[in-house]
Amino acid sequence: MKGTIAIVDYGVGNLKSVSNALRCLGVDSAVTDDGAAIEQADAVILPGVGAFPDAVDKLRHRGLDQVLAAQAGKKPILGICLGMQLLFDRGEEVRDCEGLGLVSGHVERIKTDLKLPHIGWNSLTFPNPSPLFKGLDEGTYVYFVHSYCGVAARGEDVLAVTDYGAPVVAAVGRNGVYGCQFHPEKSGEAGLTILRNFAELSR
């Protein structure tokens, strides 16, 4: 797994599209649920589609919550969509539930009068600089599918924001742990740029 990005397979995730996007970039990746393989990889992507409590349960059942906690700070980690939400301390979807606690804050339903789920392309602004968005301009559009969003406890952890009738945290980062609420693997050239930037962090 050396020189490879591990894509965490815990039964909840858009694994193929993430893998295909990395292949398009010439980045080696491996879909795995093996803790040892994740430990040996140079970077980790945690995808996710579905409900927060179910995803947490699946991670814990496989012992992958502990693996991810142990790797945080040692190598770059990127959570995508639900995978980003799992990085927070807790989530409020379905029931109150503890998350991975890698980014301080919680996950709540988007406070908007607009229709949920939020599906479609929205632009980003960048309140804090990050290597994840190197080469991208303010106003870059990316693709979202979600009804819940992260609320960071520290403003400096918010790397990107979008607007959906209210400000919505679109990306976070803390000590090499990153999260994108949107789907970079479905966001065209902008998304590929983000994934390329993430891959470069592990080199």
Describe the structure.
The chain has 203 residues and is of the alpha/beta class. The chain has six helices and 13 strands. It has helices at 15-24, 35-40, 52-61, 64-71, 82-85, 188-201, and strands spanning 5-8, 29-32, 43-46, 77-80, 88-91, 97-98, 103-109, 118-123, 141-146, 148-152, 158-163, 167-174, 177-180. The mean pLDDT is 95.
Topology of this structure?
Layout: E1 5-8, H1 15-24, E2 29-32, H2 35-40, E3 43-46, H3 52-61, H4 64-71, E4 77-80, H5 82-85, E5 88-91, E6 97-98, E7 103-109, E8 118-123, E9 141-146, E10 148-152, E11 158-163, E12 167-174, E13 177-180, H6 188-201
Parallel strand pairs: 1-2, 1-3, 3-4, 4-13, 5-7
Antiparallel strand pairs: 5-6, 7-10, 8-9, 11-12, 12-13
What's the short version?
With 203 residues, the protein is an alpha/beta fold. It has helices at residues 15-24, 35-40, 52-61, 64-71, 82-85, 188-201; strands spanning 5-8, 29-32, 43-46, 77-80, 88-91, 97-98, 103-109, 118-123, 141-146, 148-152, 158-163, 167-174, 177-180.
Helix content class: 25-40%
Oligomer: single chain
- β-sheet strand percentage: 25-35%
Apparent shape: globular
Structural key phrases:
Rossmann fold, 32% strand, alpha/beta, 6 helices, four-stranded mixed β-sheet, 203 residues, single chain
